[in-house]
Every structure is written in C-alpha cells, then in structure tokens.
Amino acid sequence: MAPSKLTHPKIQSLDAFCGRERAHPRPLVFTNGCFDILHAGHVHLLRRARAHGDMLVVGLNSDASITRLKGSSRPITPLEQRSYVLAGLECVDAVVAFEEDTPLELIKAIQPDVLIKGGDWAKDRIVGAIEVASWGGEVFSLDLLPGFSTTAIVERILRLPPPAS
Fold it and tell me: What 3-state DSSP class applies to 131?
C-alpha cells in the first residue's frame, strides 16, 4: 500500500505564497535550511526567529539541493516529510521549498522584513542580507543552542553497535 501524500496548508509553492502576499502579516520573517533531521536546536532557532515578526516563512532546500550541498548520503529525510514536520510546528507559518543551492531567489521574491540564520553564519555571509537591507529590512544571526547538529546526530547513529540477534 502506497503512503498517502503528506499535505498541510502551511506547505506552499512560491507562486501560491506570493499570490497571497498582500494578505500576509508584517513584519514577515524568513529563515532557511535543510532541516534534514529536525532536532531541539532547530526548534529553538525557529521559535526565536518567529518572535522577530508576525509571520515566519521557512525556505526549505529541496532533496537535490541538499545532495549537492551535503553529499550523496543526504538528505536522510525526503522533502515531503521535512516540509510536513516543519508545517506542524506552531511557530512556522509557511514552508516554501527551493531547488537552488541558496535561497537568494526565494528571498528576492518574498521580500521579508527580517532575515534570520543561525549563529554559525556571520551576518556578512548570510545569503540575501544585502538585498534585505536594501529594502529596509533587518538581518540577524542568532546564537545556536549548543550541542545540537544534524551531522552530529547522523555520526552518532552510524557509531551505534549493530542490534543483538
């Protein structure tokens, strides 16, 4: 039996999102990432990002984008499932996937008032920072919750001993 398609009203195409943009609350906050295995560090960052505005849009790397960025063993979790999990978070108002390696075109289309990345990104390296600043928006690099990383989780899983037979 094939699994049912995971749908949620917060999961939107860019065209659908921008088609209703005039109705979106402002300030609109944008962040992005792979969110391959959602963990407490992700949720902590997303909740803090949402506090910077009235709506949080999460740009989500497509599967092909993640493979190009992280290697052939990633993503662990396919786009449909990652989108669905993010959409289930109260702090997330919309999830929009993108195919490119960076969210620059998505940022230019959405024109957020606030752009946020985790503290592992210096403000001058955040993709879209120049554009957001050019239309009067703000850019923040928020401190990460120490000790949480998808890569560390994957590495820990790979080190586990095989189950006893």
Answer: helix
Q: Which residues contact 93 (CB under 8 A, 6 or more apart)?
A: 10, 50, 55, 56, 57
> Each residue of 28-44: pLDDT tens digit?
999 999 999 999 999 99
For residue 156, how many other CB atoms are within 10 A of its CB?
10
Evaluate whether 86 touches 47 at the Cβ level (below 8 Å): no
Give residue 51's identity as a one-letter amino acid code.
A
Calculate the alpha carbon distances from 19 to 14, 15, 16, 22, 144 in Å: 8, 6, 5, 8, 33
Mean pLDDT of 126-155: 92
Q: Is the pLDDT of residue 4 over 70?
A: no
pTM: 0.91
142 exposed, middle or buried (CB, 10 Å; 0-12, 13-18, 19+)?
Answer: middle
Nearest to 144 by CA among 37, 42, 58: 42
Strands ordered across the beta sheet of 94-98: 94-98, 55-61, 28-33, 114-118, 138-142
